[in-house]
Amino acid sequence: MKVLVINCGSSSLKYQVIDMENENVLAKGLVERIGIPGSVLKHEATGKEKVTIEDEMQDHKIALEHVIKAILDPAHGAIKDISEITAVGHRVVHGGEKFSASVKIDEDVKKAVEECIELAPLHNPPNLIGINACEEILPGVPMVGVFDTAFHQTMPKSSYLYGLPYEYYEKYKMRKYGFHGTSHKYVSQRTAELLGKNPEDINIITCHLGNGASVTAIEKGKSVDTSMGLTPLQGLIMGTRCGDIDPAIVTFLMEKENLSISQINDVMNKKSGVLGISGVSSDFRDIEQAAADNNERAKVALETYYKTVKKYIGSYMAEMGSLDAIIFTAGLGENSSEARAEICKDMQALGIEVDSERNNVRGKEQIISSDASKIKVLVIPTNEELMIARETLEVLNK
């Protein structure tokens, strides 16, 4: 069985073709600048040279047609006939309370995804566009929706309710949903495999640290708390997002700076985080370099970021009562030994100690805790595409 995994952004389309018999990636690629001059498809089939295809792609349907053509190409493709694609797995960011698991897509599912647009206005619309484009190009091929929010639907009310009048939850479903669920689920399952345990027998904290970042408490295989909230703005300080702030700051700044609702949203989502503090960049590599060059604001940005991750780890340890492992994943988590070391620094009293030599690793699975550490600390590269393909297969097998 070969699964095509699709992840649509507003002007982009990421894809992989995965053979589920052995979970090998047959091809992968990215289409950028859809609907914008300069559209480009970067495609790579396993064992073959990368190719770049430049052509104007006015919409996602045309982009998908280029993807299918690249996958089938005799010179740089991965399959001989489109009939080899037995299912398509779609990443969908927000499923609200409607979806606690992946589902086969039909008209009712698409309607439910559309109803969640107000909760994820930047993400759900292109996700729907990708689904509709695939249905046109691949009629009759089963489509499965895999939701970023689904993994966190196991959280208890005490974790997801806000301290607001309960009527707002009843009327508008105003609650914490959490995101990066596919990534948190993948690395939690992989952790259990690496430790030789059943997921139901361990408690772990997963740190998905990138430009967007979140921390999740996973108790006996289930998400019981997570840092992102109603939207991906809550929680950690991120590349350009402010994370947790005093809510009164919003109205205070709107009044002082004469900002509209859209303008304050822009400030919190696109101009804040480590970019806002450092004034350097939203890319942690740039900030680390600036800090090494004695840029004081860059140093403060990093210290503030590390401290917020540390706070969430500590609070989730207290919440679960016991902890077996801490996992670092995603761009920064997988590649920055400095970030991992600083986050775990001075946590020996909690049973957490990183070995500096083991921590000298980038982008590969490794236990980085010392032999004396009571709690295992691991680096596990995330693989959301494989998780989506697995979920797709599971849904179809039902």
Automatic annotation (TrEMBL):
It is an enzyme of class 2 (transferase). The active site is at D148 (proton donor/acceptor). The record marks H180, R241 as: Transition state stabilizer. Mg(2+) binds at N7, E384. Pfam families: Acetate_kinase. ATP binds at K14, H208, L209, G210, N211, G212, D283, F284, R285, G331, L332, G333, E334, N335. The keyword Transmembrane helix does not apply. It catalyses: acetate + ATP = acetyl phosphate + ADP. It is found in: Cytoplasm. Substrate binds at R91. Its main location: cytoplasm. It comes from the Bacteria. Mg(2+). Can also accept Mn(2+). GO terms for molecular function: acetate kinase activity. InterPro entries: Ac/propionate_kinase (IPR004372), Aliphatic_acid_kin_short-chain (IPR000890), Aliphatic_acid_kinase_CS (IPR023865), ATPase_NBD (IPR043129). Keywords: ATP-binding, Cytoplasm, Kinase, Magnesium, Metal-binding, Nucleotide-binding, Transferase. Pathway: Metabolic intermediate biosynthesis; acetyl-CoA biosynthesis; acetyl-CoA from acetate: step 1/2. Its EC number is 2.7.2.1. Its cofactor is Mg(2+); Mn(2+). PANTHER family: ACETATE KINASE, ACETATE KINASE-RELATED. Catalyzes the formation of acetyl phosphate from acetate and ATP. Can also catalyze the reverse reaction. Homodimer. Belongs to the acetokinase family. This is Acetate kinase.
